[in-house]
Amino acid sequence: MSSEDPLNASPNDAVKRSRYTHRQLHLLRQGSTATPLRAIAHIDLDAFYAQCEMVRLGLPRDTPLAVRQWESLIAVNYAARPFGITRMITAAEARKACPNIVLQHVATFREGEGGRWAYRDDSFKNIKTDKVSLDPYRAESRKILKTIKDELDRWCTNEPDGEAHCFTQGLSAGLEKASIDEVFIDLSPLVYSVLLQRYPELRPSLQDENRDAGLPPPPTTAVPWDPEDFLVELDLHEREEDDPDWDDMVMLVGAEIVRAVRRAVWDELKYTCSAGLARNKMLAKLGSACNKPDKQTVVRNRAVQHFLGGYKFTQIRMLGGKLGDQITSLFGTEQVSDLLSVPLEQLRTKLDDHTASWLYGIIRGDDRSEVNPRTQIKSMLSAKSFRPSINSVGQAEKWLRIFAADIYGRLVEDGVLENRRRPRVITLHHRTAQSRSRQIPIPASNAVDENLLFELAKTLMRQVITDGQAWPCSNLSLSVSSFEEGVSKNKAIEGFLLRGDQAKSLSHGSRPRDPNAAASEQLPPEKKRKTDDNGIKRFFAQPPHTDSPVVDEESAQPQPDPDPISAAQRSPPEVHGSAMPYYTCGRCSRSIAELESEEHDDWHFAKDLELQERQEARDVQHQSRPTNSSSSSRGTGTRGRGGRGGRGKPERGQMRLAFQ
Ligand code: TTP
Ligand code: CA
Ligand code: CA
């Protein structure tokens, strides 16, 4: 038989395909959460505040240093850690353990010294008169983020196919600042582009009609990993000698980009950071903490089980809180490895169906959460507790000036000077025997500056005093909230993303419009944008085969449209120009360029999955009570840490220190 003829090419070689499909590869381009080929990075600065101080003071890296806040330590550099110095010990204990340690106090505002923060030698003994300022760290954080973005943009503009700008836009949208010292990056669209450039065989040819057919295998038998990358060991049944597949190649390219980003942060700013790279946020975040400092860890798909098996599930995002505690007591273990042997049906006997399915997936490394760039600050608060309490308006006003300065500094960072965003409400919180708060609108006609905030705060204070029982006051704080977007906010990105029925959906925002702002300044309210579908944005953020210039889209700002349907119908011709053949999609009735039909098809596929997952995630959040609980009370801590309500909370086992 010819198939057994040794002179013929091996039949195995002829049929060997990747286990991934054209469709899965293509979804990468859209940054879809539905493809197993995703590349998500998590970058976390090493000993962040400590590094900020080392850079500011120009100290060599081997100098032991800790940042103190009064007697507590809030950051410890890696040179100090071998001495046993941790956040859990006091400054005095640290000095004893390492006499040469630099104990740098955080910058402070000081009562009666106006609204400027400064580094002061005697801050640590002045808790009564000083208030911590995190401005220096926020400023460094901003610089680092900009360096990261610039480096990613540099990669994007290196793209040869003329779509560089699209990728830039897409990537900026795929960057989530998760805290003052960490970001998630969805590298998928960029990795896709690099892969296609390096491996032209991946470009879909006309013969590849079946989008669910396997890709050709990667043209290599060994992945040339960088020796500096930490690779998580493969699962038990996997072998390093096995031929790589495209998920490995995705990680290889992703690791190269992350390495370049980290190098840029070091070269330009002299900060070291650690990174995790994996197919989703959960794995990437666990990965970045694995090999600190100054290292990156790659969690390949074939290593996920081995990797997760070593963790307690309470260390996983969303499971650090009450839900994790409940599961621990229901199943008598905290170990992922123990829970892996519990069949889904058994999980269902103790948890509701949605939670059970979600848990079953998450401990197997299945996390489809999006990298979410919409992390705009919703309010800013500056506070101080008084022990002993304060008793006069004079004392209170000294602090109000500090609060106004503190908040104003943060508003400037947030773009108030460029009119990107401004708060509309100011609130004074005041505590005597009981807590009270009073708020007033910030007049739209005034520029928001330090003095305006101070004057408004004084007005609120007078109202509190008129109400009576203002003294003794044990805690005072000022906050601003209800932000509105100004004209220049993310102009290019927002304008680019908002087209057709997106503009339609966004122009339906429920927030009242500022009558003083021009119509062109009306950008959609944050809340409304949250409900918008990121898949849509991504799809249109990277229109394939179109040469419509991005600048065009800046004019596609969401002008209020009395007839949303007409807006949706109007948009495709505006977007695509006139010469291209179109058809009307049977599912969404949009007019689609024929050249984009596959892409559009993929988009529906991905969107269906995403909607389904989002619904499931919502259900998990709302229903994550154990079903055998006899309690009928609602809201018993069902929001896991890391969920929308949990952002910013310290991880399990960490101490949250009050910034006062
Ligand atoms: P982390 O990223 O948790 O820690 P770290 O950067 O100091 O160290 P690592 O190398 O392990 O990442 O926190 C970032 C900064 O946030 C930290 O430098 C100081 C501040 N912080 C506090 O002020 N209080 C806290 O309880 C924690 C956990 C952090
Ligand atoms: Ca850190
Ligand atoms: Ca961190």
UniProtKB/TrEMBL annotation:
One of its GO terms (cellular component) is nucleus. Residues 524-536, 604-622 have a biased composition (Basic and acidic residues). The keyword Mitochondrion does not apply. Residues 40-320 form the UmuC domain. PROSITE patterns: UMUC, ZF_UBZ3. Keywords: DNA damage, DNA repair, Metal-binding, Nucleus, Transferase, Zinc, Zinc-finger. It is found in: Nucleus. The keyword Zinc applies. Pfam families: IMS, IMS_C, POLH-Rev1_HhH, zf_UBZ. GO terms for biological process: DNA repair; error-free translesion synthesis; error-prone translesion synthesis; mitotic sister chromatid cohesion; response to radiation. Residues 578-612 form the UBZ3-type domain. Residues 504-578, 604-660 are annotated as: Disordered. InterPro entries: DNA/RNA_pol_sf (IPR043502), DNA_pol_Y-fam_lit_finger_sf (IPR036775), DNA_pol_Y-fam_little_finger (IPR017961), DNA_polymerase_eta (IPR052230), Rev_trsase/Diguanyl_cyclase (IPR043128), UBZ3 (IPR041298), UmuC (IPR001126). GO terms for molecular function: damaged DNA binding; DNA-directed DNA polymerase activity; zinc ion binding. This is DNA polymerase eta. The lineage of its organism: Eukaryota, Fungi, Dikarya, Ascomycota, Pezizomycotina.
